[in-house]
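Quick one:
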Amino acid sequence: MRLSALAASNQLRATREKTRLRRATEAANVFEGTAFSANGIVAPWLLLPPKRRYRLYVPSHLRRERLPLVVMIHGCRQSADEFEHGTRMSELADKESFAVLYPEQTSFANLRRCWNWFDNNTANGNGECAIIREMIDIAFKQTKCDASRVYVAGMSSGAALAGLLAFHYPTQFAAVALHSGLPPLQAPTVASAVLAMKRGVKVDREALARTYWSNHKQLPPPMMVIHGDEDQRVHESNGTALVKTWETLFERAPGAEQLSREVSEVDASEHARAYAVANLKRDGEIVVQGVRVRGLAHAWSGGDAEFAFNDERGPNATKLIWRFFETRQA
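Output:
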């Protein structure tokens, strides 16, 4: 009886919390619109207008100070709405007081609604990178955001696009998080992108570092990488390549020393899988964090399984990402 009463009590609290979050979400300020960039053309859709839709979520309990902004870029076969509800990022935004920008890909630009991170224009920092940046500019006009606390995160193709944004525009982002993503490719093609997804790809990290430091005079934003070791859509070696690529960017900075590394294991629990964490530090600060989740396929860890590409079991990627973001400033 005691166990039944406890279970009923827990269920009642959970129901009340969901009701509270739903009411908060319903009362939030939501802006929807379209962003256009003259630099947003992607191949082969040269006649497609370089614009995409977005959804901006702003918590109802606005504070006087400017809000952090988290840019959340969905993956293939997802919509902005599905990504919002699957990751529960807007629910966390209500609790932690930050705004969330959800860009949305159109099937006219990609039949599977993948972001075209393998398009040369996008890979060079224009294309869909330019459109996302335009969305951020619009977000600053629609609500009070803190320019020093803009973060970008993504899933799958959205993660690949998030990585490109951080690589090409390091002054704009305070941190970046990539879930089940891929590293930047040099001279990318559709064929090389498919190969990278299936098998992983050898990244010329030194060449990327030379390109980065020839174009920028500051360190890249800190990066978190989350990847499941049973991902059959985006091979887990891509997560390893991302960590090593960002490590190389930091270590090739003028006068930089080798990053220190700490590796730990977190045991499985009733509601979460086991996972390994690799923290790479510069002057005692974590600048690259790799999270490898045991038994996770191509799905958002700890998401709402009612939506595709979400796995109910933790660790909760949404919370992990915000904890990585929340204290960092550009």
